[in-house]
Sequence to fold (222 residues):
Amino acid sequence: MIWCVEDDAGIREIELYILRAAGFKVRAFVDGTSFWNALKEEKPELVLLDVMLPGLDGMELLRRLRNHPAYRSIPVIMATAKGNEADRLHGFDFGADDYLVKPFSMMEMVARVKAVLKRCAPSKQELGFAGLTLDAGSHKVCLAGERLPLTHKEFKLLEFLLAHPGTAFSREQLLTEVWGQDYYSETRTVDMHIRTLRQKLGSWGECIETVRGVGYRLEKLA
Fold:
């Protein structure tokens, strides 16, 4: 089930029509409050979320989703007329999985929905070693029994590295796998997230090795 949160009736109806034609079940909301209340009864597979909404705007809804244990793993594609890099970075930092800049092609919308659903499909539920566990279902990371407060992207980055131990990835590959293939930014975004992730992991952070001339690799401590 794809949920479309869009206050413009014309855009909303087109989104619903195209997504239904692509084989998706859909549900529409005209404002953030009705969307948030509906989450108490049902959870969508993905949310197509407008930024400029009456009442609760898209960024506030995204913040709430990522801070709520039951909702933080729901994939979110932001749809907005604000397409400059600063706005997109702000959305990704809040935990958006992708961005659509208005006006956008309906075929592009369908392609991005399919790509995000594939990228966010549940993998192995629990990963980890050496006292660290990552549970994809509950979106929890624990180290020596203590839960770590990771951001959405820190969680996704650690999850990807844990799923591929011993493999070195370039910064560009990590941007593609964690932020999405259409995320355009400097590779220092990866460096920044690796740095904060290491800090939160303490001595365990030494498992995330810097591979000179390549990028990063997860290795077990000796």
In short: The CA atoms of residues 27 and 176 lie 29 Å apart.
